[in-house]
Amino acid sequence: MMHRRVMVKVPASTANLGPGFDTLGMALSLYTWIEMSVSSDGITSFDLYGDGMEGIPTDKSNLIYTVAQQVFEAAGVQVPELHVAMYSDIPLTRGLGSSASAIVAALVAANALIGSPLSEDKLFQMASELEGHPDNVSASLFGGIVVAAWDGQRAEKVRIEPHADLDVLVAIPSFQLATEKARNALPTQITMKDAVFNVASSSLLVAAFASGNLELIRFAMRDRLHQPYRAALIPGMAEILEQATGRGALGVALSGAGPTLLTLVDRNSPRKAELESFLIHTLKDHGIHAETMWLKPCVHGPEITVSEGQQAQSFMERIKGEVRA
Ligand SMILES: Nc1ncnc2c1ncn2[C@@H]1O[C@H](COP(=O)(O)OP(=O)(O)O)[C@@H](O)[C@H]1O
Ligand SMILES: N[C@@H](CCOP(=O)(O)O)C(=O)O
């Protein structure tokens, strides 16, 4: 273990997919990489690469470090000093599951570093508990579309293979919105009518994904549990939710807790450019600058590479062919 290095590549995720609040997730082709090894000089250190890592702690309060220590504790081993290198293409605090991908990366890397004593299910349970909801972590851990339920004690999931024709277009506003803030915007009670609406929509959406019925997505991807309350935090969101399916999207939703807006698109659609322009201009009309990205559902979970001894190439040299920018 002393000279072992574990490289893990973990996908981003979009949670809720509209009506499936805290339940539905889909992995996306946007990634975080971390490399973990036992520190050779007995001091914990971090190399954080790329834009957007400002403010991420480089001491033992770092999320990757604290999650790794929970793995070691659960396995009954002690690895107090680590070296962690990290790079992420997933913008932080935008509703694309950056925290979940970091948690999953830390769990998987730490477990591999000590010879994988913890089962995948144990890592899933720990991830759900750490994130507080299972939707993002299950997508990052298992890939594809995942239906996950967590009762505070135990998480269960079923994975669905995404339809090959599904493309994903996201519009990522330039401002950040912490998940905690967007959760605090939600009411403590909702009407029976709205609850029934969401049970129906979410169930139909899962059935549409499972049966490959892309035409149903538009009708099923509607929500009354969280999106109406979060719309006040994201200028232009209400208009986009209302009009995107008329502009070429199969379905539209707030991605996770936002502020990113997500559309599902048939990859053969002739209206892709129209949709992209509609998203950008609607947000711009509301004073919001946004970056769009065309993504695919990511069909697999973490990719793990374990190596022993020194590496001739640096961390960034090894991943540079795969990063987005
Ligand atoms: N790679 C990372 N390493 C350490 N902390 C991270 C990492 N990625 C995300 N985080 C933490 O997660 C927070 C964002 O989580 P959250 O508000 O749930 O938004 P989202 O998960 O949608 O990006 C960041 O502010 C940071 O504290
Ligand atoms: N179900 C959660 C999902 C939060 O996702 P994130 O990517 O914004 O962290 C919620 O809607 O609060």
From TrEMBL:
Biological processes annotated in GO: threonine biosynthetic process
UniProt keyword annotations, A-Z: Amino-acid biosynthesis, ATP-binding, Cytoplasm, Kinase, Nucleotide-binding, Threonine biosynthesis, Transferase
Catalytic reactions of this protein: L-homoserine + ATP = O-phospho-L-homoserine + ADP + H(+)
Residue span(s) of domain GHMP kinase C-terminal: 206-273
GO CC terms: cytoplasm
EC number: 2.7.1.39
Annotated GHMP kinase N-terminal domain residues: 62-144
Pathway membership, UniProt: Amino-acid biosynthesis; L-threonine biosynthesis; L-threonine from L-aspartate: step 4/5
Major localization class: cytoplasm
Pfam families in alphabetical order: GHMP_kinases_C, GHMP_kinases_N
MF annotations from Gene Ontology: ATP binding; homoserine kinase activity
Xref: InterPro entries: GHMP_kinase_C_dom, GHMP_kinase_C_sf, GHMP_kinase_N_dom, GHMP_knse_ATP-bd_CS, Homoserine_kinase, Ribosomal_Su5_D2-typ_SF, Ribsml_uS5_D2-typ_fold_subgr
Family stated for the protein in its record: Belongs to the GHMP kinase family. Homoserine kinase subfamily.
Job of this protein: Catalyzes the ATP-dependent phosphorylation of L-homoserine to L-homoserine phosphate.
Record-given protein name: Homoserine kinase
